[in-house]
Amino acid sequence: PWPRQRPAVLGLALAAGLLLLLAAAGPRRWAAPPRAARRDERYLARAEELTATDTEDSTLNYGVVVDCGSSGSRVFVYFWPPHNGNPHDLLDIKQMRDRSSRPVVKKIKPGISVAAAAAPEQATPYLRPLLRFAAAHVPALKHKETPLYVLCTAGMRLLPERQQAAILEDLVRNVPLEFDFLFSKSHAEVISGKQEGVYAWIGINFVLGRFDHEDGESEEDAVVTVALGDQGESLVRKRTVGILDMGGASLQIAYEVPDSGAFSSPQQEEAAKSLLAEFNLGCDVQHTGHVYRVYVNTFLGFGGNFARQRYEELVLNQTYVHNRLHGQQTGLSPEMPFLDPCLPVGLEDTVMRGGQTLFVRGRGDWLACAELLQPLLAGPNSSQASLVRAYKAPIDFGNSEFYGFSEFFYCTEDVLRLGGRYSAPTFTSAAQEYCSQRWEVLTQRFRGGLYSAHADQHRLKYQCFKSAWMYQVLHQGFRFPLDYPSLRTAQLVYDREVQWTLGAILYKTRFLPLRDLRQESIRQAHASWLRLSFVYNHYLFFACILVVALAIVLYLLRLRRIHRRQLRAAQLTLLWLDKVVVPPSQGNGP
């Protein structure tokens, strides 16, 4: 017979072995891949961004952003895989591409502020073509979990608040009746110029990988020390880039301010509040690794084309005043033109303002042009912001990096072919050489294909002026040193145009990783007893095997000893029976 102690001993041995095995396996934790592997994955991801999106992959998530601008509206479709499980990483959001590998984007004209200003009920029909386009590209099974954001910019800002509210209300009420996207009142809004600048800054830095906070930054990664809160805490992380963007009408700058610093006056502190934005891009508000403080300012009237108009008005007024004071006829006829230092040599043009006409002829003096433009940095008029007097958060020019877009790129590349790394002496020399050329020589070079394919007659005509204006804005307005080595002018980042809508959806969806992290923790809690891993401590694993084997050996030895006792007891019992049994003959009488 088996002994009664067998279940207890065997259970104890197996329990001990199982507990040690579980201890060896331990909980699964997120482990960062080697730095080189992460870098290779990023380069691979950049190549994959140019390929068609795999809509058959059921794990992908989607998001739709509609940019309602002043001249038209565009819809962008984005996608991202499940979050990688590291709470310090952002979602890996990319722009969707169709089967032909083209970006999924569609534009319609005019702007929503024009199409629906008089009749707000036309807002939904106006956006219907864009939403149908997006719905056709997002898999139907994903519509109910795909967020839709309708973000309106400059055109809508010009409308009265009542009209803005009526247009947005029509969208919130009627869009869900036709489309299954996740869309609520908070998903439709008119964003400020400050928000637009922040979103652009987020998008550029995300594409450049400046939000990838690795456990240890590599030697080639520039870092910055960021002050956090009022407790004197600090954090060392990757340095972000600032952006400069000059359009036709406005100029914008955005850059991180690592140090909160002190203000020289209450007025300066008040001005800073409206220009500084502090936000957390991370999914957990308790983690400060993705807290950023960004200075954003937009200067209306400082764009390239608007600045030229202001310059022409200045020249016309000054010339007429000079003529009256000195009794001259400068600029009143083609025979006595005003010699404009901001136009190429020999180029003839006319300026007309308020019924007055000024005849001009270029004399191509770049230095004189730059000097004439300096007063324009004060602003279009007293009610507009002044570039020289506006509050600007301190820039550490010894540890910073900037990208210049739009006119900054066109000015350096289209004619001068100096796009990329900016050098003030090289740019100044090339701009002076261009301005000093006769107009006939420049047009001949243009016809000969010596300039960029994007250059046209308008660029040739105003390149001298715009190069001087860009120089003044950069070095006199924003006070960039002449030897500043870290400005790059660009049109594309990694061969693609980066829209502010990418930054918008990154910010709007920043809490979505919490959902994936919670689901993952629940799955691990339910299945952790099944996942035994021996990777983390193989020595402990062998110890477990040894303990289990030793327990089995001890148990078998104990079985053998007990079995021998039972055999010996049985033999003794038999002997005792032989001695005590009486023979039948002894029971009969005589």
TrEMBL record:
The lineage of its organism: Eukaryota, Metazoa, Chordata, Craniata, Vertebrata. The keyword Glycoprotein applies. It is an enzyme of class 3 (hydrolase). One of its GO terms (cellular component) is membrane. The keyword GTP-binding does not apply. Keywords: ATP-binding, Glycoprotein, Hydrolase, Membrane, Nucleotide-binding, Signal, Transmembrane, Transmembrane helix. Pfam families: GDA1_CD39. GO terms for biological process: CTP metabolic process; UDP catabolic process. The chain crosses the membrane at residues 539-557. Its EC number is 3.6.1.15. ATP binds at residues 248-252. Residues 1-25 form the signal peptide. This is nucleoside-triphosphate phosphatase. The active site is at residue 196. Belongs to the GDA1/CD39 NTPase family. It comes from Accipiter nisus. One of its GO terms (molecular function) is ATP binding. It is a multi-pass membrane protein. It is found in: Endomembrane system.
